[in-house]
User: What shape does this take?
Amino acid sequence: MRKLEERIMKDGTVLPGNILKVDRFINHMIDPVLFEDLANEFYEKFKDKKINKILTIEVSGIAIAYACGIRFNCPVVFAKKTSSKTLGDNCYRTEVFSFTKNRSYEVMVSKEYLDENDHVLLIDDFLANGKALEGLIDICSQANATVEGIGILIEKVFQKGGDHLRQQGYTIESLARIKGFTDDSVIFED
Ligand code: 5GP
Assistant: This one.
């Protein structure tokens, strides 16, 4: 999506270790008007699917998932990284390895909010090695929910998570596809 690519060029910063910083409009400060456009784009791509729930992972997936929830007119569930008294024990749990934090952590979704009747669109900000999505897919499989598709804002195609998941049959739509970085700029796939 041209608009997202242009914004990445304008406001994104390349950090060491193949990390793109997009704190200026996605990960710290959020541009709600852009997010509305991004949610519309996801809607165009997935409107023919029977989607009744959106699932993401806290914290950076929540804002775009929320925008999608408005567009798809359905609830948004996010996998939590910390337990709490309100969450209780009746949860699906899975382990996720974090690319940016270089460690594993457990995520949880209450069994109240996901079950076999759900047709789910998975949404996240980045796709790198695919570990966050694998965790969400595992939670859907524990719930016997159907994964109808996956929407990603920025896919780093030189990391192989997307290839791997597509080989498993998942439909992934990424709004910006990055094939590499130079020291200070981003190279998009044609
Ligand atoms: P994966 O699990 O696919 O390896 O990584 C995806 C998760 O790591 C995303 O949820 C995102 O929060 C984070 N992530 C991966 N690569 C980047 C990056 O280049 N920049 C930022 N800001 N986050 C990233």
Notes: The mean pLDDT is 96.
